[in-house]
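To illustrate the input format used throughout this study, we show a single complete record. The first block contains the structure-token representation of the backbone; no residue identities are included at this stage. The design step must infer an amino acid for every position from geometry alone.
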């Protein structure tokens, strides 16, 4: 090899070394092995030192343990840890609006969780819930992100099962980063398991003021989903109207109001509600998609196409948006475009 060729080869190798290394998804077993020392049991004790409740928690880099406030509610003292190695803990700060409490646990052993972001997730991404159901050994359940509700840091709806006693445990992404705290599930509902975004943990401050209206962010969502499950459409509308009045800059509240109007076939009102959600957060893929659905019912298919394409711009792997885009194209007699959209839907679904 001559000298110029060798120099070019060295230059190429150096250039490649500077390129970002693509992240590799871990297997479920690897995720569990990475995070198991960060997930702990949380026991809530009464004045006599008896256990009155228990759940799960996640060890943070600060040395504190994050869990749900409903796990530690009514407790006089707390113990956290794994197996027989439990240490005493005290309540450092609580934010009942977000349902996140932080515990001080001096001497706790473990490896803190690596924080990720719920905002970086997309529908269809694999996630893993790790907790200690009923105080037993840690368990892992895997699933995908079924939906992201609210912005900018969304509540995560997942197919990963959340068992009783796992509340306050961790929801981890494919690289083992903490993206949420598992919080609740709706019985009898498919894929109705939820986790609060990890970003909320940093927002929990000792001097935070309580919510003025007395409803936490999770309570608004839980009630809305329960009304959907019960098919109480008028009740859902009334609840969402109250929600948007209480939190007028909450994009998730407006998107939920759009759903309520849609159930009642008030599609023009639904369009206005989705438009409000998008005004608050133009990158809200779910709101763009549902706006397209409302336009479809109004037979405004060109507007529907634009809405679906916005949803796909934000999330190119949004299989349902690709499918519904195909339907809109079909209604416009744009059959080649419809075929391509359906192919994209199949590709996204298979990933």
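Output of the design step:
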């Amino acid at each position: 090899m001559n000298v110029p060729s060798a120099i070019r080869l060295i230059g190429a190798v150096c250039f490649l070394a500077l390129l970002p290394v693509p992240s590799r998804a871990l297997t479920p077993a690897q995720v569990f092995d990475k995070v198991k020392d960060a997930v702990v049991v949380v026991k809530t004790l009464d004045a006599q030192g008896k256990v009155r409740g228990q759940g799960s928690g996640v060890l943070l880099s600060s040395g504190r343990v994050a869990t749900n406030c409903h796990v530690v509610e009514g407790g006089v003292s707390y113990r956290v840890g794994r197996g027989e190695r439990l240490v005493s803990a005290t309540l450092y700060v609580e934010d009942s609006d977000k349902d996140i409490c932080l515990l001080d646990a001096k001497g706790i052993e473990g490896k803190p969780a690596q924080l990720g972001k719920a905002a970086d997730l997309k529908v269809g991404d694999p996630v893993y819930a790790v907790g200690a159901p009923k105080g037993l050994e840690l368990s892992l359940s895997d699933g995908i992100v079924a939906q992201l509700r609210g912005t900018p840091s969304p509540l995560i709806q997942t197919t990963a099962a959340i068992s009783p006693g796992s509340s306050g445990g961790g929801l981890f992404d494919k690289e083992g980063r903490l993206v949420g705290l598992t919080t609740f599930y709706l019985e009898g509902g498919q894929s109705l398991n939820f986790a609060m975004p990890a970003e909320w943990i940093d927002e929990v401050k000792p001097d935070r003021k309580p919510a003025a209206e007395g409803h936490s962010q999770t309570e608004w969502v839980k009630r809305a989903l329960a009304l959907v499950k019960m098919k109480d459409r008028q009740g859902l509308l009334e609840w969402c109207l109250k929600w948007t009045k209480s939190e007028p800059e909450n994009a998730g509240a407006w998107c939920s109001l759009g759903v309520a109007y849609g159930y009642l076939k008030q599609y023009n009102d639904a369009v206005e509600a989705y438009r409000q959600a998008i005004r608050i957060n133009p990158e809200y893929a779910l709101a763009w998609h549902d706006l397209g659905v409302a336009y479809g019912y109004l037979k405004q298919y060109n507007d529907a196409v634009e809405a679906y394409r916005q949803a796909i711009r934000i999330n190119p792997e949004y299989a349902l948006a690709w499918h519904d885009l195909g339907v809109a194209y079909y209604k416009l007699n744009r059959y080649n475009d419809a075929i391509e959209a359906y192919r994209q839907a199949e590709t996204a679904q298979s990933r």
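Structural context for interpreting the output: The chain is about 40% helix and 25% strand. The first helix runs from residue 3 to 18.
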